[in-house]
């Protein structure tokens, strides 16, 4: 191949360009791999905290329901319904939860019926 005015052949320049492009591709690949690994680790942490939050939140909800039920039992006993208080209170709580479940089910159905626009 012909030499340029600086004594470097075109073939040498192409070889050098190829080597630099390959090095750049390797560096970009390593950078992307590190970035993906970092995002995966962040995702793992987020999922871990999300699960912990869900468990603790669920337990808090259960304790609130138990406390409300015990409060209703105490109130019904004060009202003179000593023997019926436990089943009346638990029935009221079950009906409240059933109503909330029905509301959430209707919301879920509405969301499921929505059409997703095509991209």
Characterise the protein shown here.
- The protein is mainly alpha-helical and 119 residues long.
- It has helices at 10-78, 85-113.
- Helix 1 runs antiparallel to helix 2 (85-113).
- It is rod-shaped.
Helix content: over 70%
What would you call the shape? rod-shaped
List the helices and strands in order: HH
Give the biggest beta sheet: none
Give the total of beta strands.
0
Number of helices: 2
User: Which structural class do you get from the secondary structure elements?
Assistant: mainly alpha
List keywords for this structure.
single chain; 119 residues; mainly alpha; rod-shaped
Helix-strand blueprint:
Blueprint (H helix, E strand, L loop, with lengths): L9 H69 L6 H29 L6
Write a brief structural summary.
By secondary structure, this protein is an all-alpha fold.
């Amino acid at each position: 191949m012909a030499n340029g005015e600086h004594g470097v052949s075109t073939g040498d320049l192409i070889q050098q360009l190829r080597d630099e492009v390959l090095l750049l591709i390797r560096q970009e690949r390593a950078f992307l791999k590190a970035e993906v690994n970092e995002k995966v680790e962040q995702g793992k942490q987020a999922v871990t905290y999300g699960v912990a939050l869900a468990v603790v939140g669920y337990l808090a909800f259960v304790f609130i329901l138990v406390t409300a039920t015990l409060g209703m039992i105490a109130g019904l006993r004060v009202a003179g319904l000593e023997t019926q208080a436990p089943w009346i209170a638990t029935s009221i709580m079950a009906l409240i939860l059933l109503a909330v479940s029905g509301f959430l089910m209707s919301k879920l159905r509405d969301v499921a019926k929505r059409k997703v626009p095509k991209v």
